[in-house]
């Protein structure tokens, strides 16, 4: 009995224990569930937090991008705002300098030169600072193109020549005959060379600055090595070590004595490196300095290749060349036939007159250099013959004969040796002398318009003006100009829109457009403009002469194009070349 | 005190003595739990002291000896119930020196409210371990039994010197464990 009671007690205890265990299990389960819930909430909260932080970070990034864009926009608009009035200052001072030659005010010349010099210096400074800020922001775009190195060197030589006179220096250009083509950023290579040469000129007095260029192997490819050397003041090793740092010249006294910002060499080195090359310097104090620049050729297939001129064979007009010797006739005829002219040659005055009557050429080129050959008589006869007197005659003269030639009725003159480009330009000009070229200036800045007008009118061109893009389009609709000078940043209809409209309208499509802008152009913009305009001039970054030359070339090209529509079925002649 | 100590104790009494004795321990005692224990529950440690002293009266065996015997029994049970804690333990010293930083840490994860004793140790020389027990409860004898159970589990022969650090209260003691091999040297 007690055994059963004991078992019953034990069973009861086990039952109670089981219930207690179940209650604990239930409690634990609930606790686990609640823990899970709070974990879940924590997790959700974490996700929320992460989302919130992500949003904050995105906002911060957007803000940084906006700030960076605002800075870029500020720089771009600042460059535009600063360059526009500077352009007017430099341009007007050039005009005044030009006019002071003719007028009796020689005392103002030095002042005008100071204004122009200061304007150019300030412009250089602005451009340097913009370049440097672009480099530092990693926004310096590369514009790769394939260009003729020899032509670039000629261009550099022409630009630096006036600088040489200032310190009584001379300039020598040494180049290999086979420099060939280079694929790189032409504008930057040009700026590198101009920086180094103008630097050398600044620190050298009564010495020689040498620019040498040679094609060189670079690893598996090729490149061009440029060397700019001078016998100027030179540098100490300590000065050399600071040389390429921005805002640092050899020392502070250098800045006082020689001027400059100390940005040129820093930019030069950045440019060299952006192009994949580098610049190095060797210098001895008091002895002079030599800068060596390597620019790799980005055309991997480029071996040493000469430029291949390409021209189409078409007849655009007939030219009679009256020349004493066959060699001379050939040198005149070659560029003409390449350009599509039919060339007939006469070796004697009588032949010349006969052929002129028979062939009725569009122009006659007459050599009066050789005194044995009586060119003057032929000119007189041509101009007194009612049938022939309208045919324009271009004289090949020595300088002193120029006035006599014009007095006898020659249209233009050339001196030997003949520059083929000049020959073609004159030929185009004389063929349509009755048309006064008409240039349309579209620019919202009045002083810029006024300045351009004065430059162009001086050249004998007619000028129309439009103060914005919309007016520009109206002017185009009224009459098609020979050339249009177009600003880019203008209210309402900007230059890009005008250019787009011009290229999309059949009647306007062939108008040569020259962009004259103070806008800091991006690579994409520059690329687009190069595809749609004939030339791009950054305001202030060119000389008056360069702009005039470009406009003249386009006016002449337009003449040439219209002359090509003239029928050329004028019978047989004696072809040379 | 965790319920498992009580359930294991009663099973030991049933097995080593008799179910009748186990029943008498529970019936004749005024226990807050009414003698109903589940291994997952928690109970007043004073009930264990009451149970041990009643067993001592029932059997005529000294409470200290009973408690120590229970410790040895409990260690064997731990090996069966919690084999996880024995993984990679290849000696008694390895096991005893990990009580504080491993076993008690794991126990706390499952029973955050558990009040555990502390075991600090020192190895004054190779083959000797000085383990100091410190608790709010008087279970130094149980600790000694567990140590002996541990040595037995690893098949080791060692001498244990016990020094009471609590004036006979049994809440603190120092165990100097010296392996026999070391003694002979």
From TrEMBL, chain A:
* Keyword list, A-Z: ATP-binding, Cell cycle, Coiled coil, Kinase, Membrane, Nucleotide-binding, Phosphoprotein, Transferase, Two-component regulatory system
Query: Which of the residues bear the PTM 4-aspartylphosphate?
Result: 367, 487
* EC number(s) per entry: 2.7.13.3
All copies of the Response regulatory domain together span: 318-431, 438-554
Start and end residues of each Histidine kinase domain: 77-299
Location in or out of the cell: Membrane
Enzymatic reactions: ATP + protein L-histidine = ADP + protein N-phospho-L-histidine
Q: Specify the superkingdom.
A: Bacteria
InterPro entries in UniProt? CheY-like_superfamily (IPR011006), HATPase_C_sf (IPR036890), HATPase_dom (IPR003594), His_kinase_dom (IPR005467), HisK_dim/P_dom (IPR003661), HisK_dim/P_sf (IPR036097), Sig_transdc_His_kin-like_C (IPR004358), Sig_transdc_resp-reg_receiver (IPR001789)
- Keyword Metal-binding present in the record's keywords: the answer is no
Keyword ATP-binding included in the entry's annotation: yes
Q: What GO cellular component term, any one, is given?
A: plasma membrane
Look at the named UniProt entry and state the broad enzyme category this protein falls under: transferase
Which GO molecular function annotations are given, in alphabetical order? ATP binding; histidine phosphotransfer kinase activity; phosphorelay sensor kinase activity
Main localization category: membrane
The UniProt entry, under SUPFAM superfamilies, shows: ATPase domain of HSP90 chaperone/DNA topoisomerase II/histidine kinase, CheY-like, Homodimeric domain of signal transducing histidine kinase
- Coiled-coil spans in chain: 4-63
PANTHER family for this protein:
OSMOSENSING HISTIDINE PROTEIN KINASE SLN1, TWO-COMPONENT HISTIDINE PROTEIN KINASE
Name the UniProt record assigns to this protein: histidine kinase
Look up and give the organism this protein is from: Pseudaminobacter soli (ex Zhang et al. 2022)
From TrEMBL, chain B:
- The scientific name of the source species is Pseudaminobacter soli (ex Zhang et al. 2022)
In Swiss-Prot or TrEMBL terms, this protein is called Heme NO-binding domain-containing protein
Q: Where do the Heme NO-binding domain residues begin and end? A: 2-162
MF terms from GO for this chain are: heme binding
